[in-house]
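Consortium newsletter contribution from the modelling node. Members have asked for a concrete example of what our holo predictions look like. Here is one, prepared for the NAP complex that several groups have been discussing at recent meetings.
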Amino acid sequence: MNINPLMSHPRIKLKISSWFHHIHTATQDVQKLRVRQIRCFTSLPSSKQQERRNDHNPPAGQHLSRNCLVTGGASGIGYEVTKRLVQDGASSVTITTRDAKKGEKTLERIKDDLNVQDVPIRIIETDFLNPDSITKLWTALFDDASKRVPVDTLINCAGLSQSKPLVATSTSQIRDVLQTNIEAPVKLSQLLLKEYLRLGTKTKSHKQISSILPTASFNIINISSLLATRSGSGASVYSASKAALIALTRTLVLEASEIRSNYPYLPPFRANTILPGYIDTPMVRDFSSLYKGQLEKQIPLRRFGSSVEVADAVMFLLRNGYANNTVLNLDGGLSAV
Ligand SMILES: NC(=O)c1ccc[n+]([C@@H]2O[C@H](COP(=O)([O-])OP(=O)(O)OC[C@H]3O[C@@H](n4cnc5c(N)ncnc54)[C@H](OP(=O)(O)O)[C@@H]3O)[C@@H](O)[C@H]2O)c1
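And here is the predicted structure:
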């Protein structure tokens, strides 16, 4: 029975049947599209799917076989990160310092701390204020013919802090901070990304890569600062350089993924950032006890963090195979204030 008498009108009947035709055709199209999409997801040859699934890190307790570069590895946070990488079974850790003697002392200190005779640490004297420094550093890394991929993990830790009102900051001071805190990480990240691409072009399978590179992933960890997201009087250039590290990380994640879509057998390339608050290192040692006390009162946990706690965060990001473009606050709650 027709409830609406208009529906039975021959002209309207014709229109309704043509709507039904359109709706039916559209539904069929959607179904075809869905089938096509499902086919797209399943169209990789099974060997490639297998390769893609293998992109996780070893579980905690197992060693990370990595070749690491830690800039600023002879001091503060970089020192603790270097020590943890060695403890965690890194195949090699190259550290940079502006002072080779300081580097040698670091080596001895780490051996003492770990109570071992030998550690796979190499020191390369590097000052990022020297325009040739990055090229020289990278060339030196590739001098070691025993390693076909001398770096797969880059920890950009070296940094120069400056506390000065912008109006009182000289051009050379601005340049020094930017060159150390952002230009060096950008150039080193570019070199590692190029190495990743080269590995993709010169190999043909996951198996072939595994024989060259035992590690589960390429990694970059940028040590930024809480000042990247918070204002601080006197920190304009430093804050700007640290904020740029977050932006760099974001783009690295995308560009590395684009490379991997062309070479799916490559291990994943992950990039992450840590934003430490106040950490007890040589960088803050010249704070007067009065000033330090005032700062501690503002921190919800009422204390500065330690280098060990930052090193823990680095190891978490290296181990967690799903951490990519993570921006990790490590500030005792100061970011909440
Ligand atoms: N401590 C904090 O409260 C805090 C807070 C937020 C972020 N951070 C960041 O954490 C990172 C590590 O700092 P830290 O606290 O461990 O202080 P640190 O002990 O003073 O370490 C700074 C490191 O940067 C290196 N460096 C400085 N200028 C350099 C240059 N021109 N060329 C090459 N290397 C240079 C130093 O190498 P040398 O061995 O040559 O001295 C040193 O290893 C820095 O990026 C810093 O901005 C620190």
